[in-house]
C-alpha cells in the first residue's frame, strides 16, 4: 500500500508509481480516479472518495447549488513506471458529463450522480449507475485511459 498523495491527479499518479516501483524494485502500473466539477475548477477531483464519504450524494449536488454549470468529467490516470529509477509515463482518460441527482443502484462510488455525455458529445440520459456494465465500460474514463496504455505497449 502506498500513501495517499495530495495535488493534481497527474502528480499524485506519478508519485504513487515512483514509490510503488521502488517498493517492488520493478515495473508497475497504477491507477487513480477523479471526479472533477468544472464550476469548482476540478474539485473534488482526486479527493472525491473523501467528499462522498463525508457529504453523500446530496452533499455533492449541494456543492454546485450556487452554480449554473453542473458539468463535470470523470478522469482516470494510469501511470506506468518501468523501474525504481525511471520517470513514470502518464495515460489520462476522461469522460465528460454532468452532476445530477442520484439515480440507479448504489453499487460503485459516485456512479449514481455522474451522467456521462453520449459518444457524440451530447448530454446523455443515464448515470453510470443506470448503465449496463458493457456500455459503461465502453465509454468510461477508465476504458479511455486503458486504451492509451494498450496503444503505448503495442
UniProtKB/TrEMBL annotation:
<dbReference type="GO" id="GO:0036220">
    <property type="term" value="F:ITP diphosphatase activity"/>
</dbReference>
<keyword id="KW-0479">Metal-binding</keyword>
<keyword id="KW-0546">Nucleotide metabolism</keyword>
<dbReference type="GO" id="GO:0009143">
    <property type="term" value="P:nucleoside triphosphate catabolic process"/>
</dbReference>
<dbReference type="GO" id="GO:0005737">
    <property type="term" value="C:cytoplasm"/>
</dbReference>
<comment type="function">
    <text>Pyrophosphatase that hydrolyzes the non-canonical purine nucleotides inosine triphosphate (ITP), deoxyinosine triphosphate (dITP) as well as 2'-deoxy-N-6-hydroxylaminopurine triphosphate (dHAPTP) and xanthosine 5'-triphosphate (XTP) to their respective monophosphate derivatives. The enzyme does not distinguish between the deoxy- and ribose forms. Probably excludes non-canonical purines from RNA and DNA precursor pools, thus preventing their incorporation into RNA and DNA and avoiding chromosomal lesions.</text>
</comment>
<dbReference type="GO" id="GO:0000166">
    <property type="term" value="F:nucleotide binding"/>
</dbReference>
<dbReference type="InterPro" id="IPR029001">
    <property type="entry name" value="ITPase-like_fam"/>
</dbReference>
<keyword id="KW-0547">Nucleotide-binding</keyword>
<dbReference type="GO" id="GO:0009117">
    <property type="term" value="P:nucleotide metabolic process"/>
</dbReference>
<dbReference type="GO" id="GO:0046872">
    <property type="term" value="F:metal ion binding"/>
</dbReference>
<keyword id="KW-0460">Magnesium</keyword>
<dbReference type="InterPro" id="IPR002637">
    <property type="entry name" value="RdgB/HAM1"/>
</dbReference>
<keyword id="KW-0963">Cytoplasm</keyword>
<dbReference type="Pfam" id="PF01725">
    <property type="entry name" value="Ham1p_like"/>
</dbReference>
<protein>
    <recommendedName>
        <fullName>XTP/dITP diphosphatase</fullName>
        <ecNumber>3.6.1.66</ecNumber>
    </recommendedName>
</protein>
<comment type="similarity">
    <text>Belongs to the HAM1 NTPase family.</text>
</comment>
<keyword id="KW-0378">Hydrolase</keyword>
Amino acid at each position: 500500500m502506498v500513501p495517499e498523495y495530495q495535488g493534481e491527479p497527474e502528480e499524485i499518479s506519478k508519485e504513487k508509481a515512483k514509490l510503488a516501483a521502488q517498493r517492488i524494485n520493478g515495473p508497475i502500473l497504477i491507477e487513480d480516479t477523479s471526479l472533477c466539477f468544472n464550476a469548482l475548477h476540478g474539485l473534488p477531483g482526486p479527493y472525491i472518495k473523501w467528499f462522498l464519504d463525508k457529504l453523500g450524494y446530496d452533499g455533492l449536488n449541494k456543492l454546485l447549488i450556487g452554480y449554473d454549470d453542473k458539468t463535470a468529467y470523470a478522469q482516470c490516470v494510469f501511470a506506468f513506471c518501468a523501474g525504481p529509477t525511471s520517470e513514470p509515463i502518464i495515460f489520462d482518460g476522461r469522460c465528460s458529463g454532468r452532476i445530477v441527482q442520484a439515480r440507479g443502484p448504489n453499487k460503485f462510488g459516485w456512479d449514481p450522480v455522474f451522467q456521462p455525455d453520449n459518444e457524440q458529445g451530447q448530454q446523455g440520459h443515464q448515470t453510470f449507475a443506470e448503465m449496463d456494465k458493457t456500455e459503461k465500460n465502453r465509454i468510461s474514463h477508465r476504458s479511455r485511459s486503458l486504451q492509451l496504455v494498450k496503444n503505448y505497449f503495442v
